[in-house]
# Entry
Amino acid sequence: MNPQAHKLVEALDKMKAEHGLAGVIAPSHQTPLMAALLVMIAEDMDKQTRRIIRLTWGLLILTAALLVFTIVLYEDAHKQIQRDTLKQDSSPKQP
# Structure
């Protein structure tokens, strides 16, 4: 958790403790803290969302590279099989 967000949560908990069991905190005291907390959470969420998007693009590029690599290997193996078949067909047969 963001250290600043942790401090805000602690401040809200302290306010609750000060008001006893009733737990009624004046909105004028609570609103700025809650707004600051929501802004910090939104910024963290935006940062994590951007990170997930970068990771997704990385996976897409890696998948495309593996697909190209697989196609190249398949073509090479297919050509090798054709060469081997031609060699066997063209070799003189022993009686």
